Description:
- By secondary structure, chain A is of the alpha/beta class.
- Among the domains of chain A are: 5-231, Dimethylsulfoxide Reductase, domain 2; 320-408 and 412-444, Rossmann fold (3-Layer(aba) Sandwich), CATH 3.40.50; 646-784, Barwin-like endoglucanases (Beta Barrel), CATH 2.40.40.20.
- In chain A, the strands form 10 sheets. Chain A has a 6-stranded mixed beta sheet. In chain A, strands 3-2-1-8-9 form a 5-stranded parallel beta sheet, with helices on both faces.
- In chain B, the strands form 3 sheets. In chain B, strands 1-2-3 form a 3-stranded antiparallel beta sheet. Chain B has a 3-stranded mixed beta sheet with strand order 6-7-8.
- By secondary structure, chain B is an alpha+beta fold.
- Chain A: Belongs to the prokaryotic molybdopterin-containing oxidoreductase family.
Amino acid sequence: MTNHWTDLQHTDCALIIGANPAENHPISFRWLLKARENGGKILSVDPRFTRTSSQADIYAPLRSGTDIPFIGGLINYAIEHDLVHKEYVAKYTNASFIVKEGFTFKDGLFSGYDPKTRSYDMASWSFETQEDGTPVKDETLQHPRSVFQLLKKHYSRYDVDSVSTVTGTPKEEYLKVAEAYCATGKPGKSGTILYAMGTTQHTVGTQNVRSYAMLQLLLGNIGMPGGGVNALRGESNVQGSTDFGLLFGDLPGYLGAPKEQPVHATLKAYLEKETPAAGYWSNKPKFVVSLLKAWYGPNATKDNEFCYQYLPKGNKNYSHIALFNAMYKGELTGAFLFGTNPVVGGPNAGKEKEALSKLDWLVAMDLWETETSAFWQKEAGSDPSKINTEVFLLPAASSYEKEGTVSNSGRWMQYRWKAIEPKGESKADMEIIHMLMQRIKGLYKNESSPAAKSINALYWNYGEHDHPEFDLVAREINGYYTKTGKQVENFGMLADDGSTCSGNWIYSGFYPEEGNLSKRRDNKDNGMGNFLNWSYAWPMNRRILYNRASADPAGKPWNKDKAVIWWDAAAKKWTGHDIPDFKAVVAPTDKGGMNPFIMLKDGVGGMYAPTLNDGPFPEHYEPFESPVPNAFSSQEYNPTIKVWGGDFNLKGTKKQYPIVATTYRVSEHWQSGSMTRNQEWLSELAGHMYIEMSEELAKEKGIKNKDQVIVTSARGEVKAYAMVTKRFKPHMINGKKVHQIGMPWHFGFKGYATGDTANRLTPHIGDANTMIPEYKAFLCDVRRAD
Amino acid sequence: MVEINLNRRQFLKLSGATAATLAIVELGFNEKEVHAKTKELKIAKATVTPTICPYCAVGCGILVHTKNNDVVYTEGDPDHPINEGSLCSKGTTIRQLFTSEKRVLKPRYRAPGSDKWEEKDWGWMLDTIAKRVKETRDKTFVEKSNGIFVNKTEAIASLGGAALDNEETYLLAKMMRGLGVTYLEHQARI
Lengths: 786, 190
């Protein structure tokens, strides 16, 4: 989230799309209801009338997979009706930049497309620059090749009628949403967009989010209290685990992992290639070297490139689908699972279960026996005698049986004290990781092979005992001066000469010499509900990102009732109710003083993004499996996605599988259900797998509420109870009736509450940028079980 | 129905400070004492420890009451600025994360081709896993490729971590990159 949970109370309008906070983030809804008490509106856009929709002022249905037309139409509406925040757009975004001649867009394709490689050469998307390398601008936004004019032209195709026929949203409801939300473009007003996996789990997931960010920039909503682009993250520490680099492409703190390529062959080359000339990322060498010092300790010296060579360098995409494809083909030998359950939660889960049997060994750390650690059992439909995988199940402690911090969606790093000793023989994951690493290091101690060298160089100094010193880990994350051992104050102090270390630069500042700030519990509101003395928010305890944009170019808040930070001319610094997400002494009139987006090279918001794999503007493509042709171009699905073929990813046709399906969650269960289906009360509250469908579809198929039904897709089938409701309605798509069904994805064969696994139906297909699977729009058919 | 209404009326009186004396007379007992007794039964002498909910990323505060090495009660943390004491159905029931009979209490091992788990001790498990990691690394480790130091193994994968603490994810990232693992993924991708 650019903003945070208690900040939601300040919104004039919340557009909730691809999320269902009333059920999946229930407590967040308190702050939305508070916003309404303050006069704000709540809009819910969802294929299903959810409990969030039931609390909304306006509900608009849309067919799964049509967010870009929906938002593209709002962009068009805001421009057509002159509702954009012009000064914000001109000063704080790249709308004024001029794109080079040669950029084109025709029939769903941007210039530079190569159908053979299914990828773009992005050269023709770049900006015109002046001699000093800075972009050429036209702040009147009139230049025909200005981003604003290109944007206007691109989305003029997304008129209300075209949008409505693709999304299935009734025109009247669509216009109500457009009117209510675009009203936040008025200077001083703020609107927030809340989204979750309903947005991201698509082959155009990244562009869906991009379209939200563009709309927010256009309406001047980023940096404002009650504004922002807010991902409602679904796991207690999915924010933190992402920040700490548990994805193949990132080292902690979003430092790109080096690759097997000549420009990354040395630390010097890597830093030269990856460090931009301007913007805050120009400090990258300090963060990289400090990370290497944290990882390799005294072994990392200037003379050996700070052990940069020991970092693994990959040469391919190692993301989830690719990983399971490699496993399926027998390319992997062993795997670790830390509290994860892909046999229920992975796409095309039946294939992911099969893939596991190709491993020699599997280590699972969990509180429970999950469907994944039990994949070899008869209950899983397996023949144990034919599966040669060794499985190690290590009992893990629950969240309050150990100490540590988690980062919530609003980036608050909150400390959890240990309430009780771990149950039975279970151990904290930190202990397990530490004990394993000690043993592995022990085995290599007296060897000098290449495999040994990189392990021996790794600095693992958390005490000799089996129990690692928690505090030493926390201190290393923040970073310290390598000579004195004193904690660095924050990431501003990090250096690229080896004199500092920091395990994750974006968190640096949470643990200065004074102590661990994540433990703070002062709940006094020091203004605008930012609670600056409660826990710690990265970066630098800033609560609202890009908050410089909450003030006008001169440094005065756009709205005195929504003042976050402002320029204090007498004191010559930025001050206010939040920590400035900006250099506090840079005056509005100084160089860069009007550039709120400090992480970006040009300091302004990216209305146009010439760096994404599928284009600088979001464009509608149908899901990989769709019931209708693409009404916007002849490109059926995203032309830049990797298509996984063979029996690893069978594709269904609309003839055989005419119904759109999506998955979702219920309040009582969490993700793959292993945490909640192993508890009595929650299992009793939500005990059965079901398929939710409209009364119209049920009638067509002769299905009654609570009948057993079978849902089939090209990948598999599931049996479950029918739940016939008014919450789904058939969509009218270009005059044709299209049915949609939905189902929870929490169930499996373990625990108290069992049921068929929805992900046996979902495809192995991912987004063009992130490879997130398309769980939220696929084709199926449904019939009565008897 | 009548009784429910009566109780409700009495309750309303009880909760109003000015009606307290009257209510005590009406009910025939000292409400304050009864209230104190109830507290004693449930959570007296329990240790209260603040935690953050392990489910979604709203990050609600919860108080865990423990006594005699057992979790006796959990409740929303009234001091927490986000939830101010309230919780959803999942947050309300986190006591059962400790009390559930489904918890795995000892390490389990499944041998190739076997149809059952065997309980093993931690030492054996960790030593054996460390050996497997070493065997696999030694067989598959690539130090250099096309003249570039790549120091990697593409034969080991690590998945998961979104429920771990930050400090744990840090050590996990350090461990896996240190081992040369490139198939490093977790729930944020899916």
